[in-house]
Amino acid sequence: MNTAVRLALLASAAIPAFAVAAPAQAELAAEAVDAPAIIVYGRPDGYDIEKTRSATKTETPLIDVPQTVTVLSREQLDDQGVESLNDALRYVPGVVLGQGEGHRDQITLRGQSTTADFFLDGLRDDAQYYRSLYNIDRIEVLKGANALIFGRGGGGGVINRVSKAPEYDQARTDFVGGLDSFGGWSIATDLDQPLGEAMAVRLNATYEELANHRDFYDGHFVGLAPTLGWKLGEATRMVLAYEYVEDRRVTDRGVPSVGGKPLTGYDEVFFGDPAINRASVTAHIARARLDHDFSDNLTANFSAQFADYDKYYGNLYPRAAATASTVEFEGYENFTKRQNWSAQGNLVWKGETGDIGHQLLVGFEASDQDTDDSRAVSIFGPARTTASPYPLPAQSWCPVQPLRRSAAQANQTSARCLPISRTRSTWAKWSSWCSGCAMTISGSPRPTGSTVLARPAATASGARAPA
Predict the structure, then answer these.
(1) Which residue segment(s) compose the domain that 83 sits in?
(2) Buried b / exposed e along 385-409 (16+ C-beta atoms within 10 A)
(3) What's the rounded Cα separation, in Å, for the pair 167 and 200?
(4) Has residue 96 been placed in a domain?
């Protein structure tokens, strides 16, 4: 009885309270209509990139670019601990990484496989090699056709690396190093020093010793990139840059397949010859950029680049899927000497018509490429099958007609076609070679420290093993 009375009293007390609150809320709502609006602006706390020049060659906000663009900032690369372009692109939607035969960056972008749609500061960098990020400020991935802006290529998109630039208002001394459980290690430095109010120099350098879980894999990477920034007055700026790249490594094509799946139980086994499976790149890239502001609405820029690439790679690798007991091999070597000249200029005007803003771009690009390329395939002896423990049949390098060649190079290639004797130590796991180079696989584990084919010896006729 007492409970019922108490509930009734509470209910009756609440009714007047709501009756009083309703007019008050209506009064507040009426005042809010006349009150000034409060607009809250926020910025994402993270890897915020608002603008990029790459997509349109103009300072256009990414939200206004009619194209899918992914930008990986320096902060994001550092937080992920990424040191190579290949690793950075693993996190980009629409980009699928290829093996690149163990010696180059290769991607499939929007369904288009490419090794050439790579750019450095908007200029083509189309040689085949692995690209380090020690001197890169950000990576811009443009998806979709880009022939209008980037000329030839770019069917599925382009990958543009933006270099670190000198800073005129602060000095920088950064060092970073890394060590992994396989024995690989790296060290890099980023030095920035103003040389007065109108000049600054920046030096990026790195050395990396390569190692992983695979047998016989090793190599190193050296990168050196000095950059000079110079203010030639209030409205003119110049940047001069140079990069030296040296890459030496074993080309490892991985394990063959069996029944449509990777061969299991051989994840550390090197299917090749470490004396033959070598890749080397030496690159020199020099760039210059000049920017000038004619007014607040009219600007111009001019860029030029010279790139010299010297590339070699050789491969012995499984040529097809393995059977339950046999893996067949084939091989080749390739020499490429390439020089690129590129020049690019743009004139950008900004204007307004009422509340509508405009940007007009007029530009040009010219380039010249000279490539000297030669290729030789590995020819094994006449025997199609050998039984253990017989050595690998004699092998020679047989040249494939190159695109361009000098008389001296033709003579060198002919010398490489002479037979080269090879010897090998017998592996418990690999017991015979056949069909141009095949081995049988048994279930017994390979002893620690086993060796493979010995390095080919030079002959009196001048034939040589790949360096």
Answers:
(1) 51-162
(2) ebeeeebbbebbbebeebeebeeeb
(3) 6
(4) yes
Give the integer Cα–Cα distance in Å for 105 and 130.
5
Choose among 318, 275, 258, 276: nearest CA to 439.
Answer: 318
What residue type is assigned to position 344 of the chain? Answer: Q
Q: Given a cut of 90, is residue 267 above it in pLDDT?
A: no
Q: Distance between CA atoms of 264 and 406, rounded to whole angstroms?
A: 46
Residue 208's pLDDT is what?
96
77 part of a folded domain: yes
Neighbours of 225 (CB within 10 A): 22
Give me the DSSP letters along 78-103: HHHT--BHHHHGGGSTTEEE--GGGS
Stronger pLDDT, 116 or 449, i.e. the higher one: 116
Q: Is residue 55 part of a domain?
A: yes
pLDDT for 380: 63
3-class SS of residue 310: strand
Between CA 433 and CA 384 the distance in angstroms is 9
Question: How many domains would you assign to the chain?
Answer: 1
What is the average per-residue pLDDT within 103-112?
88
| Inside any domain, residue 65 | yes
Q: Is the dihedral of CA 29, 30, 32, 37 positive or negative?
A: positive
